[in-house]
Amino acid sequence: MKDYILQILAGDGIGSEIMAEAKKLIAWLNSNTDINIKTRDGLIGGASIDAYGVPFSDETLEECRAADAILLGAVGGPKWADVEYTLRPEAGLLKARKELELFANLRPAIVFDALVDASSLKPEIVKGLDILIVRELTGGVYFGEPRGIEDLGNGQRRGVNTQVYTTSEIERVARVAFDLAKKRGNKVTSCEKSNVMESGLLWREDVTALHAKEFSDVELEHMYADNCAMQLLRNPSQFDVIVTDNLFGDILSDEAAMLTGSLGMLPSASLGIQGTTALYEPVHGSAPDIAGQGKANPLATILSFAMCLRYSFEQGDLADRIETAVQDVLNSGTRTPDIMAKGCTEISTSAMGDALISALEK
Ligand code: IPM
Ligand code: MG
What we know:
single chain, 362 residues, alpha/beta, Isopropylmalate Dehydrogenase, 2 domains, 21% strand, globular, binds 3-isopropylmalic acid, binds magnesium ion
């Protein structure tokens, strides 16, 4: 028996519905395989603000540190939208990333054959697509100082954020990208705006130096982030691994996600230094407009949990089985509303969770 502790942070909106399906899967694994995952529930985002007055408490942070991994749903909603930044649900997520030093955010964008028609791009452009965005997650303009809004006293205000990176921050995330590329298509595209930003120039120089020193067997290409946004639409299959900063990664990963047809399918992993607790979460948000209606797609959360099995629990075989079961369910034509297509059957969030278990049992 292998024992693991999984800290669950369902968060807001559809978070609790999609997490219920992940828990179903965990219960199934506990009784049908030789792993034993104990789950603990904690609060983050608006749910935490309502209970404790802060979006991510120090007590919950300590519980997360003590766990083997964290599975998160989604945070945010209109109820908490008009408060200052430090008290918004999103601030809880940023605090978790920063405090746990989860500097490498892996966002795979894979087009499942059954969903080729869900993409807004032509099937021949997205068929078989399998790219991985490695987004720097604890630096850059998200955290740079100085920041703030200042009153200039003449009826004008001034808003400031700072884009800042150090060599060690650039090297550690680039190292993750190169290592992952070796296990995939052996190519890394590094994206920045070195044509206009000093931090981007440093990024390019440091990635180039690291490549020459440690990864010269991997193909490296540099690309301006705006060109990358364009190339993702023009010819996405030219990419294998894309490594980029926090802000460009936020934007490019939403774009890459949409190539696959639905944000409801995409998982992510946020990894720190070896031996620290990693966090897994779907790329989509809390979707308050459909919360509580059984319409949410739980597959991104389930695929995030599969990434947890692969990267934190070293259970790659089980992760493979879950990913295959997801494909089987899609091939069978059952769909949540976000990926609904002609000739398919629309099912609810919980029916999708059940369908996945049935596929695993086969
Ligand atoms: C993401 C989200 C977050 C981000 C928000 C919710 C703070 O958009 O994970 O991509 O900007 O990083
Ligand atoms: Mg985002």
